[in-house]
Design brief:
The complex is a heterodimer.
Chain A lengths: L2 H8 L16 H15 L9 H12 L4 H11 L3 H8 L13 E6 L2 H19 L5 E2 L5 E6 L11 E3 L2 E3 L4 H13 L14 H8 L22 H6 L7 H4 L31 H5 L4 H4 L11
Parallel strand pairs in A: 1-3
Antiparallel strand pairs in A: 1-4, 2-3, 4-5
Chain B lengths: L5 H4 L16 H6 L4 H7 L3 H11 L11 H6 L10 E6 L9 H7 L1 H15 L3 E6 L4 H16 L15 E6 L9 H8 L23 E5 H13 L1 H5 L9 E8 L5 E6 L4 H8 L8 E5 L8 E2 L9 H6 L8 E6 L4 H15 L5 H18 L6 H13 L6 H26 L28
The chains are: A alpha+beta, B alpha/beta.
């Protein structure tokens, strides 16, 4: 029985009876997590500051924040379970029930919603057959709508495990979730090759991503970030038609051919290379490496 | 109107080498005079650095525009307590998207600014509170801090100056309210992110009740260039009261959304002109100068100088310079409803006017948008917003009221249309990014 299952059992309504204390982690798991927790605590002058990263840490163990995880945090930090629960339930990134390997968040704050985020979210609900914060039957994808993620110049934006998938359309988002469910390799527009939600949570706990090339992946800045810079140099930046679409990166080979080929005119964030990238010399996904760089800082 | 070229109008400083294929590395940064400002700062007595940044006139880029040097000066010296610098990288204001691309492409400008600031107000520990929802940026901050330690820009006796400094990168966990500086401090102390009553101000009792400076990413990242190129150079840009360069973020129904680094005081018309205007065939309807919490403006404000005084004079605030532009296909009631749902969701619950008021605003707005409202509801909206504005601990409440007040001011007729016409007269499909692309109708069939 996994901790999650035990936890779900303990969460059942028990009228009139106080809830039993959360079960502990198995000894080897606890020992490993305690070593990580001590490393986190050492970063701060006050130990309680370690609580948010430690909640990310226990989430990296079980995929969501369980009562066992909260009890562990409480014991390590000399807090009560109530104090930890109060914090864990305040922040939206801590999941409170078992969820999928890939958290697909569609921005539906005003700007993204207007630019198509609402349409993308509705389409994904229908396509996946799940509602907000629900998980597909295969346990792969948890769908939710999210608030503004600081990428408004790439609207509409979809985040998967908190990596950026810029300039999405209903078609590209649908292919994205299909790839995730099929186990195809998926690369964000900005960010590194997707790892699972648990692995992402460990980075959030403050343990750097050790995968070779992860920091460098997807290059310096995205195309929209460079619009002003290119104009200031007298260059023609990528126009709407190009910036509105997510671009593949030349260093990221596309996954194997998909059964569902994207229709022409709908480049996806992660699959086959598209004409716009190669035909647009101002476009940074290929041009950035060619730019002279020594004199601009002067 | 004079027509200036983008080469003359724009001033890329922070963004000057973002197109380098490895713009985020220490090596690239040093090729672009990185850490030269630090050398100059470390050669100056700390108080002189504070005075220098004050004289330069740098004002906070996080929204409020408070003079950065003055914030540093408030830190009591010789008090025997530790001092802390906390960098607010919890960029979550709707529409705001400047710090995240800045940190993704050029994290060392922040690290260098941190070292200069900590030298100035004598701090040995700085924290970068990054919103957790941006893992690609977290990765590069981890790497930048690692590189800076390895190169001797962080750690013990930095560049032989005697300054010891540790930097801790801290990922948040999803709460807009933690962008408010005192809520951020509570969150960094491992608590629910709820704003504190002031006084005491963070400069006196901040993190762990010790003197603390909380600065926005862009504010701190702007310091190295000021130290390296001089305060006079900085003051050649912008105005007397709002000097310098800054990142403007253009988004929405514009031809070229993106980051435009320009002197303070540029206008939206100038930015749109060089960026190709609104998307073809459409007109600007309303826009925010600095995120959803700054009262919206309209086409009549295209020539307002985008600096602290100019936007203030137009009845709004410069805020984060998040220029969200919406065209005539956009329903203002839908836009305001969605923003209000956001404030309701993100209200921390501490203050009754904000917690309850945002809830009731959402109820009313949803009814109005669905054509189930009454004309009297418009006055009720105004009344509730008035009961939130200025009556909560922090600015989230004021922010929630801003879109209500400003949209009623400019678009009351549109609200009335929703009531009298029995619903929304707009087609949301026409507002999408792909609405005007030929042959791009959404395929509805399920392919699975």
């Amino acid at each position: 029985m996994t901790t999650a299952e035990r936890d779900a059992g303990a969460d059942a309504v028990q009228l009139g009876m106080p809830r039993l204390p959360a079960p502990d982690y198995p000894a080897d798991v606890r020992e490993r997590l305690a070593a990580d927790a001590r490393e986190i605590i050492a970063r701060y002058p006050g130990s309680r500051s370690a609580l948010l990263p430690m909640l990310h840490l226990v989430q990296s163990e079980e995929g969501h924040v369980t009562r066992t995880g909260m009890q562990f945090c409480a014991e390590m930090l000399d807090l009560t379970a109530a104090e930890v629960t109060a914090v864990a339930t305040f922040y939206t990134m801590y999941r409170r029930k078992p969820s999928g390997d890939y958290q697909v968040g569609v921005c539906t704050n005003t700007l993204c919603a207007v630019m198509g985020g609402d349409a993308i979210f509705d389409d994904l609900k229908e396509h996946l057959g799940v509602g907000n914060q629900e998980t597909t039957e295969d346990g792969k994808v948890t769908l939710e709508h999210i608030e503004c993620n600081a990428a408004c110049d790439y609207a509409p934006v979809v985040m998967v495990n908190w990596e950026f998938f810029d300039n999405q359309t209903p078609e590209s988002a649908r292919r994205l979730v299909d790839d995730l469910r099929a186990g195809n390799e998926v690369h964000p527009t900005r960010g590194a090759k997707l790892c699972t939600f648990k692995e992402t949570a460990r980075i959030l706990a403050g343990f750097p991503d050790e995968r070779p090339g992860a920091v460098a992946e997807s290059g310096g800045a995205g195309p929209a970030s460079l619009v002003g810079l290119r104009l200031a140099r007298g260059e023609e930046p990528a126009g709407r038609a190009a910036t509105r679409r997510a671009e593949p990166h030349p260093e990221n080979p596309p996954p194997d051919a998909l059964a569902d080929q994207p229709p022409a005119g709908h480049p996806s964030s992660h699959d086959a290379p598209q004409e716009t990238s190669a035909s647009d010399p101002a476009h940074p996904s290929t041009a950035s490496a060619e730019e002279p760089t020594e004199e601009e800082g002067a | 109107m004079t027509v200036d070229t983008p080469e003359k109008l724009l001033t890329p400083v922070l963004s000057a080498f973002w197109d380098h294929s490895e713009s985020w590395t220490l090596e690239t940064y040093r090729h672009h005079e990185g850490y030269e400002g630090l050398r100059k700062a470390l050669a100056m007595p700390p108080d002189d650095v504070i005075a220098y940044v004050k004289d330069a006139g740098l004002r906070g880029r996080g929204g409020a525009g408070f003079p950065t040097g003055m914030k540093w000066q408030f830190i009591p010296q010789g008090d025997g307590k530790p001092h802390y610098l906390v960098v607010n990288a919890d960029e979550s204001e709707p529409g705001t998207c400047k710090d995240i691309p800045l940190l993704f492409a050029n994290p060392h400008s922040l690290i260098e600014g941190i070292v200069i600031a900590c030298h100035a107000f004598r701090s040995n520990h700085a924290f970068i509170y990054l919103r957790g929802e941006t893992v690609p940026v977290l990765r590069r901050l981890h790497e930048a801090v690692r590189e800076a330690y390895a190169a001797g820009f962080l750690g013990e006796d930095i560049l032989g100056s005697g300054l010891n400094l540790d930097v801790t990168v801290h990922a948040g966990a999803g709460a807009y309210i933690c962008g408010e500086e005192t809520a951020l401090l509570d969150s960094l102390e491992g608590r629910r992110g709820q704003p504190r009553l002031r006084p005491p101000f963070p400069a006196v009792e901040g993190l762990y009740a010790c003197p603390t400076v909380v600065n926005n990413v862009e504010s701190i990242a702007s310091v190295p260039a000021i130290m390296n190129r001089g305060k006079e150079w900085f003051r050649t840009m912008g105005s007397e009261k709002s000097p310098g360069f800054t990142l403007y973020s253009l988004s929405g129904h514009v031809a070229r959304p993106g980051q435009y680094e320009a002197p303070l005081g540029i206008t939206l018309r100038q930015l749109l002109d060089m960026g190709g205007g609104m998307r073809p065939g459409h007109r600007l309807k309303f826009w925010t100068p600095g995120g959803s919490s700054t009262p919206m403006l309209t086409e009549e404000h295209l020539d307002v100088p985008l600096d602290y005084e100019g936007v203030g004079g137009a009845g709004s605030m410069l805020g984060t310079k998040a220029l969200q532009c919406f065209d005539e296909t956009t329903c203002v009631v839908r836009a305001v409803t969605r923003w209000t749902e956001f404030y309701e969701h993100e209200s921390c619950g501490k203050c009754t006017p904000c917690r309850e008021g945002t809830y009731w605003l959402v109820q009313l707005l949803r009814d109005i948008e669905a054509g189930k409202g009454a004309l009297a509801d418009l006055d009720k909206l105004d009344d509730i917003a008035d009961n939130i504005n200025g009556k909560s601990f922090c600015a989230l409440g004021d922010g929630a009221a801003a879109p209500i007040f400003s949209s009623l001011k400019y678009f009351r007729e549109e609200y009335e249309q929703h009531v009298t016409g029995g619903g929304c007269p707009f087609d949301p499909a026409k507002s999408t990014a792909w609405a005007d692309t030929p042959g791009s109708t959404t395929h509805r069939e399920v392919t699975a």
